[in-house]
Each structure stands twice: as C-alpha cells, then as structure tokens.
Design brief:
The complex is a heterodimer.
Chain A lengths: L1 H20 L3 H26 L3 H31 L13
Helix pairs in contact in A: 1-2, 2-3
Chain B lengths: L1 H19 L3 H21 L3 H25 L15 H23 L15 H9 L4 H22 L10 H15 L22 E2 L5 E2 L5 H6 L8 H18 L1
Antiparallel strand pairs in B: 1-2
Helix pairs in contact in B: 1-2, 2-3
The chains are: A mainly alpha, B mainly alpha.
Chain lengths: 97, 254
C-alpha cells in the first residue's frame, strides 16, 4: 500500500519539477498529465485500501477532465503557434507591459 | 507485488526521461511508457475497467493528440537551455525533492490499518460496481461531465478555427503571376527541371546541371534546401565519368 503511494508521490513530484523546468509548452502539458496520472494511481490505491469503489470513480472523473483539458490546452498551443511561431512558454508574454 | 517492483523503476526512469529529454518526441515516448505501466498497475489493484480506460483514453487518445500537435508545430525544435530566471532549475529540483520527501513521510505515517482489498466490492464484477456508483450517487457529476465535454469540444473548435485573412489564390491567379514574372524578371514560366539529371548522382538531392556545366539550384525540392541536405553538384563530375568510361573501354580491349 505504502509502496504504491510512494511511487505515486515520486511521479507527482517529477511532474511538478518538469512543469517548473521545461520551456516547451507541449512538454509542460505532458508533465501536467504525468501529475494527473500519479493522482489517479493514489486514488486507485486508496480504493483498494478502503475496500470501496469510490476511489476508482474519482480516478475515472479525473481521466475525463484530463481529456477535456488536453483538448482545449492543445488547441490554445496550436493557435499561439500559428500567430507567434513558437511553443516556448517564455515567448507568450504579450500581456507584459 | 512482483509486478509493482518490476514496473516501478521503469516508470520512474521514464518519468525522469520526460523531464530530461531534449526533444519533445522522446518526452512523449517516456510518458507513454509511464501510462501503459500505470494501466498494468490498475489491473493488478483490482481495477480492470480503469485498466481498459487508461489504455484507450490515455495512451490511445490523449497521447495521439499530443503526437499530432507535435507534428503540427514542428518536431525538430529542441528546447532552449537558457534559463530565464537565474538558478530556477536548481531551485525547482530542490523544491521537488523536498516536496517528495515531505509528502512520502506524511502519507506513509498517515496510512495505517490492513488493506481491505476489493474482493467484496468487486463481487458482482468491477464494471457493475462502478456503474452502480456512477449512475447512483454520482449521477449529477456524470451529467456535468457531459456538459464539460461538449464545452471542451466547442472550445477546441473555436480556438483551432483559422480565419482566412487573404483570399485564396486560384490556379488562374498562379498562371497570371508566372506570366507577369516572366515579363518583368525573365523567370522561366514553365516547370522547373527535375533534379538529379546528372552524370554521377541521380538522387533528388543533387541539382540538375545546365548545358554550360553550372548547377541549377531551383531544381532541388525546397524542403531539402531548408534542411540543408543538398549535395553540391560539381561540373568536374562529368569529366570524371568520361575518364572512367574511357579507362573501362581500354580495359576491354586488352
């Protein structure tokens, strides 16, 4: 039980570091997906720990929301790429005075 | 437990590859490995439905979407290594390590008691048990999910929609422009010659050679020029071939 949670937390931390370190917007997005997957693992593990299926339902909803988020996020990245010709998160600074 | 100890190191290494890979495609590969391994861990932990959903939705749909967008925005754009904020990388690594250590300690302390296991909850089958919950107490959340998915689809369509700012050029427009260029600059209005019509090299990366021995660079496809893969055509190649032919004929006579 603790091993699964430890693995989940390690993956979550790696994803968080990736979000902070990487510059490419698509890779940042992949790191966010990694974090969501890690929480799903924790949900499923807790579901087994407590012997009811609510955790699995929560993981299912996380997957649905992640799918919706990826669709909109990637559309934003594509539209930024069309106008700015870059996917670097540093370049998208039009709102800066 | 064997499955866990086999998959856990693979997953951690693949996740680290996601952070350290220079090219986005390699990062995507690492993420795919993590996702498939996670699916196996779900199956081991009594969640066969989530196992299938993880493979179909995550590795099937979401990863494909990532790869499609990677191909749209150009695969060969390695990340810049310049730091915008000085020392950010190091600070992020330290913060991540501290967070991981803290969370592992706290959670390991917090989880107590024996593992109940899902044998009882899965008695009628995992899918049946999930359906009972989804269409029972969680029905409102399912309805909101439907609204969310439709909103996401509409949002993606609106964001990815491309308004044409200049009128589309027809074939007649192209022909008129060719003739205008011919009149103004003398550029040949017909087809460009095919590349590779050359004494020694006949691949597409070799420019065609003109009667006076100079190379015609327009004959090479522009995408090859952009990638810098054009082979230099040497007028002396013709002489080399002629010399070779002569020496071959001399050999036959002997």
């Amino acid at each position: 039980m603790t091993e699964y949670l430890t693995l989940s937390l390690i993956l979550f931390s790696i994803g968080a570091v990736g979000v902070l370190v990487r510059r490419n917007a698509i890779v940042v997005f992949m790191c966010i997906e990694l974090m969501l997957n890690a929480t799903n693992l924790a949900f499923v593990s807790f579901s087994r720990q407590h012997g009811n299926l609510d955790g699995q339902v929560a993981a299912f909803f996380v997957m649905v929301v992640a799918a919706a988020e990826v669709v909109v996020g990637l559309a934003i990245i594509v539209s930024i790429y069309r106008t700015r010709r870059t996917t670097s998160v540093d370049e998208a600074s039009l709102l800066k005075s | 437990m064997t499955v866990f100890w086999v998959l856990a190191p693979i997953m951690v290494v693949a996740a680290l590859g996601l952070v350290f890979a220079r090219r986005a495609v390699h990062a995507a590969l690492g993420l795919a490995v993590v996702m498939i391994s996670l699916a196996v861990l779900y199956a081991v932990q009594g969640a066969p439905f989530l196992f299938a959903v993880q493979i179909i939705v995550y590795t099937g749909a979401i990863m494909m979407l990532f790869l499609f967008v990677l191909m749209l925005v150009g695969v060969d754009s390695p990340d810049s290594l310049a730091e915008t904020i000085r020392g950010q990388r190091l600070a992020a690594g330290v913060v991540g390590l501290v967070f991981a250590a803290l969370a592992v300690l706290v959670i390991a302390q917090g989880v107590t008691g024996a593992v109940t296991g899902l044998d009882e909850a899965n008695a009628d089958g995992n899918v049946y048990g999930l359906a009972e919950l989804l269409f029972g107490p969680y029905i409102l959340a399912v309805e909101f999910t439907a609204a969310l998915l439709i909103t996401a689809v509409l949002g993606a369509m609106v964001l990815a929609h491309h308004e044409r700012l200049t009128p589309k050029r027809s074939q007649a427009d192209h022909a008129a422009q060719r003739m205008r260029e011919y009149a103004e600059t003398g550029r040949h209005p017909g087809n460009a010659p095919t590349p590779g019509v050359f004494a020694q090299h006949n691949a597409v990366d070799t420019p065609a050679i003109l009667p006076d021995g100079s190379a015609l660079h327009e004959s090479v496809p522009p995408s090859l020029v952009e990638r810098g893969q054009v082979r230099e055509a040497r007028a002396a190649d013709v002489d080399d071939v002629a010399r070779q032919l002569e020496s071959d004929e001399g050999g036959d006579e002997k």
